[in-house]
Amino acid sequence: MAGLRTVAAIALTLVALALLDTDVTHMVAGAMAAMVSTFAIKEKQVGGQAITLALGLPVALAAMSLAALLHSRIIAGDLFFVALIFAAVYSRRFGDRGTALGLIGFQIYFVSLFVGVTVSSLPDLCGTLAIAFACSAVVRFAVVPETPQRILRRLRDAFRARLAQLVASQIELLDAPPEQLDKVLDDLRRHTARLHEAALMIQGRLEEGTRDAATAALLQRRVADAEIATERLGVLLLNARSAERADTLTLHLPHAPVPATGTLITTHDDATVTLRRDLKALHLLVARPVSDDRGTAVAHVRNRLLGYRDEDKLPPGSTAVQDVFRGIGEAARSVLGLRLALDGPQDESNDTPATTRSREEFDAEDVAIGAEEEEDEGDDRTGLQRPTTRAAFQVSVGSVLAIIGGEFLSTQRWYWAVLTCWVVFLNTASTGEILVKGYRRLLGTVVGVVAGVGLAGLVGNHTWIAFALVLLFIFAMFFTAPLSYALMSFFVTAMLGLLYTLLNTYSFSVLVLRIEETALGAVCGIIAAVLVLPVHTDRRTDELLGTVLDRLGDVVSAAVEQLSGGPASDLLGKARDLDTALDDLRASTRPLTHPITPLRGRRRTARYLVALLETCAYHARSLAATAELVPHSKNIAADPRLERAGRRIAHNIAVIAAYVEDEKTDGEVTSGASIASMLKHDGPGALPSGTVAFRVLRHLQRLDEGVVGLARPLDVPVADRGDKKGARG
């Protein structure tokens, strides 16, 4: 949508300028200004977008005017450019509006250098800027409007699609022969991760996209239920296919060993046939919108799947196979809840007692869900420790180096080195991230230059064909940005080759110079990142790892407290904070896990730690979702015995976090007796398989094992206390 909006704004600007009979230079400037004024604004509310766009025009006019005045004053112009870069980066501390205005100021100054603005050409170019901003406003607010409600609606549809993809991959897991199990598991991991990404995106848009806090809390609850229930179904299927109980880590660790195939499921037995039928029925419920329901067929399918929540309706089979049917029943319940939250009340005339019970549970939860405001922790760092301040100094120093080196390469197009230096710092927070981004940009630029040579020969003097290809490449640039930075850089460079052709400044030497300036800018950025207030990748990942551990401890402690009979709290909000911190950690470890890294041991360790944390986060989310039902559920009761298990897990997390944060501590991670054996000594009776209490116990056990597993690669001492009998229970 961002690509479509940007392309539409550029196209409208080109049409308007063509009707005014402007020359190609003004059309190029207008197209670039329309692109900047459209993609720079990221605010969620329409009113905020309008204010930022209105403020952006005078900022753009000021930047272009100063570029014209300083056109012949080289030293003064360079000094101002560096000051502008510092201000543009520093302004990010003021949120989306500050980021947008800083980006507009920098990019318009760059456009001015690109088209060679002078004092005599300034009035016409200022008019071009005004037209470009006006066209951007028309597209943003009338042609392709962007409102929080529309975005949330698309995200909800995307979540449904991701949910259907995950169920489809689970069907493949059921039928996959042993020799194809590795590939199917890779697909399952990918679809599980993408479903989680969609859930995080929805959570980030709930407050602005819903009418009130209660509606936002309800939708967040239903999305979390669906994500957890469907991921748990994948674990249960893997267990049923494996010769022994499969580790949840298998669904989160890339290239994890494939579990040995067991005999619990065979291809043509009655249980497998029924499982296959019911998984396809679940896929139908997920993929089909309520408006497409026909007659009682869908209601019949839904009722049958919800019936698996009752023990007496489970098909015959082994315990592991019956667990899968229970998982299908819980997944069907989560889909029903998601439909009620997204589509409103539905026909209840064909409900069975099992379906009625599920609806009553949702009604009780809906009454209990209240709006709670989250506190904004903010950034308490000051001075040079503030990320925006540090980045501003780093980019400024890198830009000075790029200007000096760029002038030696070309007195006319030195600014390409500065642009690359600027770009490699965007959305990066450590030296490793800058190194990887610079490498990817250089790779994309080299390949883009080769494409630019061929395109320039094909286009020749056909102006509108060139502009059409520019629009196509701009859309491709936006579309590929989340997928591959190198691919995005390829489309940027190919587009610039076409713009040079339009300005009649194209030559092979110009495109070679583009590669040289890009390499220079990337090197200058890396030098600045290493020498000026550096943030090493290890330090960055350690900080984020500590944050993840702290938030994991918060979720587990609060969930266990509520499961033990303690007061209610905003558990799903805490779980969302954990997911956000884990997402940041995952991004920061990419330089360590990149294929070009020479440190293979660290790459394996980083992958293992992130996968183990994702597994712990899954179990913590499941505990939080279950704990939130305790105050108002007829089927889930608090159990004070869980408090002891929670204390051990919380202690272990705190010890690991202290070691990560380099605190002097003599603590040890406690291992030994399983959670089940701990609870057995505190009270009578074993928990029957399939009950909610048994599921809570399983999540606690897996979480305990995962936390102890974190200690070993981090070299945290582990004390083995008690017997290990049942440690894998």
What report would you give on this structure?
The protein has helices at 2-19, 24-39, 46-69, 74-90, 95-115, 122-143, 148-175, 181-209, 213-241, 270-287, 297-306, 319-343, 353-368, 387-409, 415-425, 431-459, 463-480, 485-502, 508-531, 537-563, 571-588, 590-593, 600-627, 642-660, 675-682, 692-711, and strands at residues 669-672, 718-721. By secondary structure, the chain is mainly α. It is globular and about 85 Å long. The two termini are 48 Å apart.
Give a concise summary.
The chain is mainly alpha-helical and 729 residues long. It contains 26 helices and two strands.
Structure annotation, total helices = 26
Low-pLDDT sequence parts: 370-380, 723-729
**Range of helix content:** over 70%
Radius of gyration: 29 Å
Mean pLDDT: 80
Order of helices and strands: HHHHHHHHHHHHHHHHHHHHHHHHEHHE
Q: End-to-end distance, in Å?
A: 48 Å
Instruction: Tell me the fraction of residues in β-strands, as a range.
Output: under 5%
State the shape: globular
Order of adjacent strands in the largest pleated sheet: 1-2
Helix and strand composition category = mainly alpha
> Can you summarize the main beta sheet?
2 strands, parallel
Write the layout of secondary structure elements.
Elements: H1 2-19, H2 24-39, H3 46-69, H4 74-90, H5 95-115, H6 122-143, H7 148-175, H8 181-209, H9 213-241, H10 270-287, H11 297-306, H12 319-343, H13 353-368, H14 387-409, H15 415-425, H16 431-459, H17 463-480, H18 485-502, H19 508-531, H20 537-563, H21 571-588, H22 590-593, H23 600-627, H24 642-660, E1 669-672, H25 675-682, H26 692-711, E2 718-721
Parallel strand pairs: 1-2
Helix pairs in contact: 1-2, 1-6, 1-17, 2-5, 2-6, 3-5, 3-6, 4-5, 4-14, 7-8, 7-9, 7-10, 8-9, 9-12, 9-23, 10-11, 10-12, 14-15, 14-19, 15-16, 15-19, 16-18, 16-19, 17-18, 20-21, 20-23, 20-24, 21-23, 23-26, 24-26
